[in-house]
Design goal:
The protein is an all-alpha fold. It contains four helices and no strands. It has a domain of 66 residues. The model has no long low-confidence stretch (mean pLDDT 81).
Length: 106
């Protein structure tokens, strides 16, 4: 008994389950979940370093493509207008934090 070409072909559950392969992400999740505490700690450090490296590459690409130019221009304008201060150049002259000052009662 053959399959009629005009009718949809439905696979049985056993046919489907034998064909379903876990995605690479699912494989990684399963492997990470099974790591020992020591290996998980090493994995976490490795992953954090990888994430930082990718972040750095993305920022470098964004800078090279000019995608941060408008932000830099606005930040420099706000600095010039006195709306913020340059913490790198002016760290020793930071104004006191008003939230940390105690009010005197007269």
């Amino acid at each position: 008994m053959g399959h009629h070409p005009a009718l949809p072909h439905y696979k049985t559950e056993s046919q489907l389950s034998s064909q379903i392969q876990p995605t690479p992400l699912q494989e990684v999740e399963r492997a990470v979940a099974q790591l020992s505490t020591q290996d998980f700690s090493a994995f976490r450090e490795w992953f954090a370093a990888l994430e930082a490296e990718r972040w750095d590459r993305q920022i470098e690409a964004d800078v090279a493509a000019g995608r941060l130019d408008d932000l830099a221009t606005r930040a420099l304008q706000q600095l010039e207008d006195g709306e913020c201060r340059d913490r790198v150049r002016d760290s020793s002259h930071a104004p006191p934090n008003p939230k940390s000052q105690k009010k005197s009662i007269a």
